[in-house]
Give the backbone structure.
Amino acid sequence: MTELYPLALRLTDRKVLVVGGGAVATRRVPALLSVGARVLLVSPELTPALQSLVDAGRLTWVARRFQPVDVDEAWLVQVAIDDDDAAAEVSAAALERRVFCVRADDRDAATAWTPAVTRHGPLTVAVTAGGDPHRAQVVRDAIRDGLSDGTLPGCHVPDAPAGFSGAAPQVPAAPGRVVLVGAGPGDPELITVKGRRLLAAADVVVADRLVPGLLLDELRPEVELVDASKIPYGPSKAQEEINRIIVDRARAGAFVVRLKGGDPYVFGRGGEEAIACAEAGIPVTVVPGVTSSIAAAAVAGIPVTHRGVAHEFTVVSGHVAPDDPSSLVDWPSLAGMRGTVVILMGLKNLPKIAATLLANGRPAETPAAVVQEGTTGEQRVVRATLGDVVEKTAAAGLRPPAIVVVGDVVNALSAVPIP
Ligand code: SAH
């Protein structure tokens, strides 16, 4: 096999022929569609995943065996069948028309290869390994991990100016911007791939108390870390100060990641920060996170919905007591629901919350659970009923951060041990 000449293809609105409708095509077609290729798929049969793409109008399916005319007008052919003779026939038709042809079944007969790929925002890394796909994947995985955790540079190189065409880049200081990133519920592995990539690219990170410490451990030494929980004012003044810090740093040209526990818009005041940035004319985007309201329950073996048990779940803040006139939670309605209620920031007011739910008709035997520091090494779970949850939580000495789950889902999985 002689050396290959690597290329990146622009396939938008260009016809790509895929022959075969099985597992290989199922893996390859989405990548072609994601770059805007016009896919013609020829195969007597399809996998359900491909069928759903056809149903959605994303590609054209011709339900028969391959005919050489299928290659006409195509810029690329992808052979995804394991019948050698049929594959050779496709190859021959492509060769005759001088169309490059990728073959899953025979890399030596192929005139083009698909590399192992990893994408990180604007960066695409494609790896080939002399025909050893396993080696290519291992190297690709190592590069992907390095780019994700910042040990490989790439993500923290400033974006090149738009229209950059390949000459040595004269990179101007990128204009500042802010991203509100959800850090997940506590386990540092539960941040999203996008969140982790942007974190590795940050100049300034403004982090909350509930952000997993290990994520901050990975930051490059030159990154400025602002610990928002140490801002020495009352809550509302502190929020103003956080808004001021993120806006000021972005104005000075920094890429600011505002890292928040769970999801930024679930009781995280992320909305206020987004407004503050927008009002100051600073570009701001959000990367959602895995919220503790679902995740802490899940790791305690509690699905927030379960077929035949609960078809709704409501997440409320217990920060303001139910008898406080400033509470925005409709506690009597919650008590009347059959579905799951998840209470965040509810430990301090738990006696009043449980009493209110009971007084408004939720039965005392309704299962309830409290999950402290879910998804972390400190996780603790107390199972109870609405009638005795206050007593059992106090006896176990649970402390914040914790969620309280009320509803039959608490016991939905208790018959089977889920690791
Ligand atoms: N934005 C966050 C919630 C912020 S409010 C999210 O989406 O998860 C803070 C409250 O979240 C805490 O008081 C607690 O009720 C809950 N919480 C956050 N992390 C938690 C965890 N690991 N386990 C249990 N509860 C948690």
Q: What stands out?
A: The pocket of S-adenosyl-L-homocysteine is lined by residues 185-186, 210, 260-263, 266-268, 291-293, 296, 344-345, 371, 373-376, 400-403 (CB under 6 Å). The chain has three domains: 15-114, 172-290, 293-411. Residues 229 and 235 are 10 Å apart (CA to CA). The chain has a mean pLDDT of 91.
